[in-house]
Design a protein that fits this description.
Distance between the termini: 45 Å
Order of helices and strands: HHHHHHH
Helix content: 55-70%
Shape: elongated
Strand content: under 5%
Radius of gyration: 22 Å
Oligomer: single chain
Number of strands: 0
């Protein structure tokens, strides 16, 4: 809810953009978790689909910044004071995204009260493997998995062009 009295027109826009960003953070975290699980399971084609979705979400978020730039500085300053020290960096999901991506700093926990849902999630993320760790694992095992799959083809087929090859590998990811 806007805190301005009387209400400032652009404050509602500011609040909505930030709420939408929180929803996108939630979806990004969901996608990153899936990528980590799929990398661990060797489901590389599934990972590619999830990464494409992440890319589209990030493109969408950047586009939303354009909307946030429409208020004039004067309009923004008319309600900025009521936001106190809030900057968006206090978002638990923002910090959680940093942790998932491998930028883990225990000091960031200090901004969240012990026992709160944000703090509990951040403490868990601090202990979990990051997406970077999952990628390193996936890359290190991908070569061996691919070699094992190719060895399942009948003799003479391993080096041949095979139009059904992508379907074969996709079926192995399920």
């Amino acid at each position: 809810e806007p805190r301005s009295d009387p209400p400032e027109h652009d404050e509602t826009l500011f609040i909505i953009i930030h709420q939408v960003y929180e929803l996108w953070f939630k979806q990004l975290l969901h996608e990153f978790d899936k990528v980590c699980v799929d990398l661990s399971a060797g489901k590389l084609f599934t990972v590619i689909g999830s990464i494409k979705r992440v890319r589209m979400i990030l493109k969408t978020r950047v586009g939303q910044l354009d909307v946030l730039e429409t208020p004039t500085p004067l309009s923004f300053m008319s309600f900025r004071g009521r936001l106190a020290s809030a900057s968006g960096c206090q978002s638990g999901q923002f910090r959680e995204t940093e942790f998932v991506l491998g930028y883990k700093r225990r000091k960031m926990l200090e901004n969240f009260t012990e026992g709160t849902p944000d703090r509990v999630r951040l403490e868990r993320r601090l202990q979990e493997r990051s997406l970077v760790d999952a990628c390193k694992f996936g890359i290190s095992t991908a070569g061996q998995q691919a070699a094992n799959r190719v060895s399942h083809f009948p003799a003479g087929d391993a080096g041949a062009e095979r139009p059904d090859m992508p379907r074969y590998f996709e079926s192995q990811d399920r």
